[in-house]
Amino acid sequence: MGFVQASPTLKKRKKKGRHQDNLGSPTAV
Fold it and tell me: Which superkingdom (predicted)?
């Protein structure tokens, strides 16, 4: 889901799950 790294709102939601989401890693999804 590449749109996740494009959306700061979704990124914040995934952030609580993985800090690696910062780089928009597929593992964060």
Answer: Eukaryota
